[in-house]
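Bumping with the actual sequence this time:
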Amino acid sequence: MCRQAVRRRVTVSANSILAILLGVIASGTIPSARAQSAIDDVHIQPRAERPIEDKMLVGGPKLDSGSKPLKVLVDLVLVPVTILDGMNRLVRGLGRDNFQVFEGKHAQDIRYFSSEDAPVSLGIILDVSGSMSDKIYRAREAVLDFLNSANPQDEFFMITFADKPEQAADFTEQVEDIQSKLIYAMPRGRTSLLDAIYLGISKMRQAKHSRKALLVISDGGDNHSRYTESEIVAQVKEADVMIYGIGLYDRRFPTPEESLGPELLRKVAEVTGGCSFTIDNPNDLAQVTKAVGVMLRNQYLLGYRPDSVSRDGKWHKIKIKLKQPKKIKFSRPELQFGYSPPLKLGTGIT
């Protein structure tokens, strides 16, 4: 504990000062300066401070609700799942009975199930490095098409990155706010992809919706970040933010960093439960961004309470099995995920 020396203040009211002055005038003489007591003695006691409750209720009784605050700890694991058939087409119309959830080897009771289009907090991470100069026009169009098809309650922000990442637009529900910033996104410099993802994850702490996602659009690997790949992978693994990556890569990679770009985006996206796409034609960008939007709005959300929660900080394996409806062949009949306790209500685990 840090101790601080406090000097007491002697307060004198205006009436007291007036009384002292009148006393001096009436006597006709000024008393001799003879010390009668220690200089630090308190001659006038300050007014007693009222309790904080009385300040809040001036003239009224002290507030007492008569009850203690209620605290409830609920361990609920929420797992968002996207289902594709054998031809990578979205499968809609499934119900709770089509899913089985296992934690380790133990089957779990699905307490919560939803397939509705819930609002999303979405971050756009756009590459504006020098190599994007011949692709930036298509990238702008694709971002606007993606946002125009969003849920009216969605919120967005945008980060651009070249030599360093910059927040181009704060959280907003107005597409026009993003559009006005896209106009000034001019390609220049190198590629700080990992730093931009770090900034996007940090910004998501201000999101108001429980569903959170980042859309990363880049044409190369990282060559100018302070953070390493392992540091970013560890962070996004814990962030509860799904990442979708779109890589615009030339058929021939001019640098070693660009040759590692597709694998870098894939690794960062898949560890969050998202996915990445690799294209070599900027004209295909709008179609791919629309596909990402459709995937975001056609997820099944499964919720269960673990039989026992061991708060050891270790990852717990989750497996989801699908009970295949007739005439549908799934591309991945089993999905495996993980989570690390402690859990919070509404925490999505992918």
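The tokens above came from a reply further down the thread. The longest strand covers residues 165-172.
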